[in-house]
Amino acid sequence: MSAAAPKNIVVVGGGIQGTSVAYHIATSSKLPAGSKITLLEAKAPASAASGKGGGFMARSWGDGGNTQQLHHLAFDMYEALAKELGCETYRKLPVLSVRPGFSGEGGAKKARKSAKLGPLVPSWLDGSVGPISALGYGDDTAQITPYEFVTKMLEKAGDKVEVRLGTCEGVDTEQGSERGSRKITGVRYTPRDSDDGTVETIPADDIIVSAGPWSCAAEDWFQGAVELPMEGVKSTSIVWQKPEGMDKVDATALFCGEDNRFETHLEVYPRPDDSIYICGIGGSDYISKEELKAGAYREVCEAKESRVDAASASFREMSATYKAKGELDRVQACMRPCPPDAKPYMGCVPGFEGAHINAGHNCWGIAWAPACGKAIAELVLEGESTSLDLRPFDPARFTPVAKRGGRGRKKQGQSLGEQW
């Protein structure tokens, strides 16, 4: 049996999702010898949400629907991968539900007297809060700093993955194996350091579009063969330094109820470096598909000052320690990619051989990254995913049958050549 021919594979998008795809392809035993993998990133690896996200994951927090399999597989993969890659920021941690907006210290004081809750209440939760309950005890809830995970995957992959900086402009194709189909032959891009906007081409047998909210631009690259409705949700987050004199920051995450005083619903994540990351700040902006196609907020995505102030005030009410001694380390903003049905796009582009989409993972993109990378690697190298059922995530699910790729006759979206 002859060896499989080498493949040229291009992954568009250097966030945690795209990097996970590239990493799992590079480390797969199914990758033909001599293959070349290029990670095409517009700015820098993990420069968008993967460099600014919270990194929280929960195995059992799905809704019991099609995405539950993503929660389970990814959570189970993370611990082993973190060890394999040498990540220092992965850890399991408990999670509390906290009601803000109450005067006095009754909530935290009462919880500390509970044999079950007491050990979970962090010392820095010493301000005005109401009832407290447990959402997780650290057996199926964990965290990782996504920037480190991206960096470690690229380090481990080494020269098996080439990172190239530039903006994808489209694809080159030739006649496919079936009448009316096209086959990927190259990926066109403008190098980041280009002075004159010259477009260059990377030879490619396969392309995986995994560029977060900006992945909707692929609609145009594939000539309308797939419609990818997408909305970008731009949200602010803040990071606190460890207060002076504090030995360590207790590792318990908080999911807080609505604080009507500040219009926040904070998510509070202490990190292994003793900083505290906070999102759930409210006041998000909603970015249209047309704006995303034009590259909105890809280069610069700034925090909203009014929401920084609101989140800081809300947190200070909950923590007397941080109210007295806390200082912000940084403020930031990023976007999450949201399809209309809150399910990701994962699978093949109809009518384009070698074209794949892995995008639209909403607020769970970081949590699901290992599972998505593994499944897409299987799809590209083996023709199907055996780790996940990708059918619910068909990239063409919003595409009218008549518009799907290929110019031959179709029945219920299936190409039938020239005959019914």
Give the N-to-C terminal Cα separation. 36 Å
Q: Regions with pLDDT < 50 over 5+ consecutive residues?
A: 407-420
Q: What multimeric state do the chains show?
A: single chain
Structural class category: alpha/beta
Q: How large a portion of the residues is in β-strands, by DSSP E?
A: 25-35%
Sum up the overall morphology in one term: elongated
Give the overall pLDDT as a whole number: 94
Largest sheet: 9 strands, mixed
Number of helices: 9
Radius of gyration: 23 Å
Helix content: 10-25%
- Count of individual beta strands: 22
List the helices and strands and how they pair.
Elements lengths: L7 E5 L3 H11 L9 E6 L14 E3 L9 H18 L5 E2 L2 E6 L5 H7 L16 E8 L4 E3 L2 H12 L3 E15 L6 E10 L8 E4 L2 E4 L8 H4 L9 E10 L12 E4 L10 E4 L5 E4 L5 E3 L1 H5 L11 H14 L1 H6 L2 E11 L6 E4 L3 E2 L1 E5 L5 H18 L27 E2 L2 E2 L5
Parallel strand pairs: 1-2, 1-11, 2-8, 5-13, 9-19, 11-20
Antiparallel strand pairs: 3-7, 4-7, 5-6, 8-9, 9-10, 12-15, 12-16, 12-17, 13-14, 14-15, 18-20, 21-22
Helix pairs in contact: 1-4, 1-9, 2-9
